[in-house]
Design goal:
With 164 residues, the protein is mostly helical. The protein has eight helices and no strands. It is elongated. The N and C termini lie far apart (50 Å). Residues 141-164 are annotated as: Disordered. Residues 24-137 form the RGS domain.
């Protein structure tokens, strides 16, 4: 994933909100508000399970404790990958992931499946999201907020100049 490089003037650093979201799916998924809006969109498209699976895998990779890892691996499997899953994702090779593998989990055990889902979102849902009402309304609200705060700061500067 892309992260700020910390250099002043970095284009990544100056982009905010919807501008960052349009730069890449990675940026969108790093922003809690972006994830919220993307989930809202995917829910309408009946494919929210994709981003939920991706987020669960991201969280799983951070798990250190072996017992917790086993529990989370089983939860991910039962929720997203099992034939009886409540939020089943459509990925190739999910049948090769079986319950015996859940006994010896490792942080990257879902990586290939997570990559498939990421690519599905990136090349399918993400481009539609950027054209959706959900995204466009949020972008307009953000732009109005920016314009009103800019107008306020101009007014404050003007009042300081004329009230001296």
């Amino acid at each position: 994933m892309e992260h700020f490089d910390g250099k002043p003037g970095s284009s990544q650093q100056t982009l905010k909100g919807t501008s960052r979201w349009t730069a890449s799916l990675e940026n969108l998924l790093e922003d809690p508000e972006g994830v919220k809006r993307f989930r809202e969109f995917l829910k309408k498209e009946f494919s929210e399970e994709n981003v939920l699976f991706w987020l669960a895998c991201e969280e799983f990779k951070k798990t250190q404790d072996k017992k917790q890892m086993q529990e989370k691996a089983k939860e991910i499997y039962m929720t997203f990958l099992s034939s009886k899953a409540s939020c089943q994702v459509n990925v190739e090779g999910q049948s090769r992931l079986n319950e015996t593998m859940l006994e010896e989990p490792h942080p990257l055990m879902f990586q290939k499946l997570q990559d498939q889902i990421f690519n599905l979102m990136k090349y399918d849902s993400y481009s539609r999201f950027l054209k959706s009402d959900i995204f466009l309304k949020h972008k307009r609200a953000e732009e109005q907020e920016e314009n009103s705060s800019e107008a306020q700061s101009v007014a404050k500067r003007a009042s300081r100049i004329y009230n001296t």
